[in-house]
């Protein structure tokens, strides 16, 4: 009876009120991840200053690029005097998972007007994907925009904090704030491990990444991610064949 009442009230509730609730629900859902990214944002802001960027350039990088891992890696490459082509190729492969994120959201986002699709595409991050991927999630524009905007503002704020601190606290990199990257991704990945294929992919990625790191293989992170996805795909096919051949 209560479910029927909630469905009825949802139908008669004004559209603007539904959008407002969805917007703030998105903010609430992503807020823990937005707070957890504090050390990461500080590190990105401080590294930009140490790489020789001005305040405006450092802030613009966080506001326009809006990709934590890509920012940190590209800044590290700039500081090591890598070529522009090397930086572009590295960042391309490092952020290629966003294509998979977009494909997962495509069925819902494709119904949005063009400007809204562009906006959600810009705000799409690992964190937004994590809060919007659940089967029971409402992936309307208001929800995705609320979650994405909350994380975007938090990232810009923490980056500014890092820019300011870089001038007053030298060698922020020595504080190992980059560990926050690992912590944030643990929060994202662990709740998503709901099948044997995903578990195998995660384990294979971790083990191969450690091996490549030990042997100082430069493309180890990218290759370990590819190997992890391949192992997950193979596991899913094996499990699928086993389930088909199993007696009912």
Name its key features.
2 domains; disordered C terminus; mainly alpha; 248 residues
Describe this structure in words.
The chain is an all-alpha fold. Helix content is 78%, strand content 0%. The chain folds into two domains: 17-175, no CATH class; 193-242. The chain has 13 helices and no strands. α4 (55-65) packs antiparallel against α10 and α12 runs antiparallel to α13. The two termini are 37 Å apart.
Chain-wise SSE layout:
Layout: H1 2-12, H2 15-36, H3 38-50, H4 55-65, H5 68-79, H6 84-94, H7 97-109, H8 114-123, H9 126-132, H10 141-168, H11 179-189, H12 196-214, H13 220-245
Helix pairs in contact: 2-10, 3-4, 3-5, 3-10, 4-10, 5-6, 8-10, 9-10, 12-13
Helix-and-strand structural type: mainly alpha
Total tally of structural domains:
2
Return residue spans where pLDDT drops below 50 for at least 5 consecutive residues.
243-248
Number of helices: 13
Quote the average pLDDT.
79
Based on CA atoms alone, the radius of gyration comes out at 21 Å
User: Which percent range describes the beta-strand content?
Assistant: under 5%
Spatial gap, N to C terminus: 37 Å
Large-scale geometry = globular
For the report, how would you describe the main beta sheet?
Answer: none
Would you list the SSEs in sequence order as H and E?
A: HHHHHHHHHHHHH
Task: Tally the beta strands.
Answer: 0
């Amino acid at each position: 009876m209560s479910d029927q009442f909630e469905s009825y009230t949802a139908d008669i509730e004004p559209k603007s009120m539904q959008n407002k609730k969805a917007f703030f629900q998105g903010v609430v859902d992503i807020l823990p991840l937005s707070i957890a990214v504090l050390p990461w944002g500080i590190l990105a802001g401080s590294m930009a200053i140490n790489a020789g960027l001005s305040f405006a350039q450092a802030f613009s990088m966080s506001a326009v690029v809006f990709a934590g891992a890509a920012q940190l890696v590209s800044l590290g490459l700039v500081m090591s005097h890598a070529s522009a082509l090397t930086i572009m190729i590295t960042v391309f492969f490092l952020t290629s998972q966003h294509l998979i994120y977009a494909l997962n959201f495509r069925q819902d986002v494709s119904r949005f007007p063009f400007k809204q699709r562009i906006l959600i595409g810009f705000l799409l991050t690992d964190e937004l994907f994590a809060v919007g991927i659940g089967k029971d999630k409402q992936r309307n524009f208001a929800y995705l925009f609320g979650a994405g905007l909350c994380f975007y503002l938090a990232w810009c704020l923490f980056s500014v904090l890092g820019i300011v601190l870089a001038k007053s606290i030298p060698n922020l990199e020595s504080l190992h704030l980059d560990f926050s990257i690992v912590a944030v991704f643990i929060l994202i990945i662990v709740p998503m491990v709901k099948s044997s294929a995903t578990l195998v992919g995660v384990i294979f990625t971790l083990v191969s990444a450690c091996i490549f790191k030990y042997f100082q293989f430069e493309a180890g992170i990218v290759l370990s991610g590819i190997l992890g996805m391949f192992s997950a795909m193979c596991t899913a096919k094996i499990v699928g064949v086993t389930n088909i051949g199993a007696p009912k």
